Here is the input.
Amino acid sequence: MIALLLTAYGYATPTITYTATLSVSAGAVDRAAGSSVAKKLNLADLAGSSSIDAGSVKMSVPYQCKPRHGPATSRRPARPPLSACNWRRSVDPDPDFATSKSGEVVFLLDTPLKAGASREFTLTFGPTPTTNPTKALVIASDGTDEGHDARIVKSAAQTFKYQKSAGAFSSLEDPSGADWIDHHHEDHPSSSGEWRGVPNFEVGVPCCYHPDMTSNVYVPLPSGPVRQSWRGLVINDGGDISKKGNWSARFDIYPDRATFTMEEAADTYWMMYESGGPAGKNMADAAKQYMYDSAGTKTFMTKAFDVKAGEQKEQYYIVVDPDTKQSMFFIHHDGNAMVHYQRQSTMTVMGFGRQPNPHVHGHLDGRHTFSIGIVQNGLDFAEQQTRAKGLIHPASVDVKLTTDM
Here is the structure.
């Protein structure tokens, strides 16, 4: 078992502590070690459902998380510490935890959780603040990439470089420094550099969420040692930035991946992975590289293909570079979209919601979520399939609040 201790100050009665027990259920799919779990909590609601006076649950910032371990007691068995945790304020609707008593806890599973199994975690709220000892598993900084202001997020698995005004990733580097996107602008026209990027959402006319564009507004969100988050907004000013309306996409960077969700779309769109080549390799190496789809079908990356909408209930692709023993997962969490893939002489093109030529417009509509990440020692398809299914089907979390006097 793993325990997580959250403490804060500001209680009306400082001798009271509140313990929220989180029961994480794997559901029908296995959960790999390192899988992230997130749960939004509203302490006032929890207090009401647990017959606790909501007025006594008063908290104020700062509030931190801390692994807890120790000997077993008559009330609670011994539990090893949690390797990483992250507590962040609620963004919507009230960013002030002291007022809203709401927030979100994000943590990682230290060990696998088999399908059908569950595991409990405890969150203890008390009167004494503590320093968060969690090691930062994602480290964010501001810099530049290809001449644009960038948010750079590094983990042990990869480094993402996100152009703030473009709303897109222009670089995805593995630990060796090889760039799995390899976007360039100056002196690299069209597919040799400037067309490359992720997510490259498009809407019939060049719009947004593509490197080198300047239509995005970068909005930082509360972040921590396990997850770095922000929004990319496009506010239509009546010009030709988009066909109509506004756009909002949320980006969450975890140790193992980037997950991006189109929250508000003013038109149909597609989602693309366009790069110089997996592992930074060009067409000459494509004959060795291959990918698996969600059914386990193996396709070498020199072969183009298209998938009709509705043919794949689950949509993910595991791209493998056997020389480096690395793989990259590319996931559409919602499934059932058309897929287009081709390997050109200077660019790899793979997209959800994009039809074959002519590329008239995207076929995705409304809210969709996608994930991408690099895996070291990623040749085992079964392991990568477990990871992908775990992301598509999130674990469920039940919470109960109790008091200790």
The radius of gyration is 22 Å. Residues 1-15, 54-74, 76-99 have pLDDT under 50 and may be disordered.
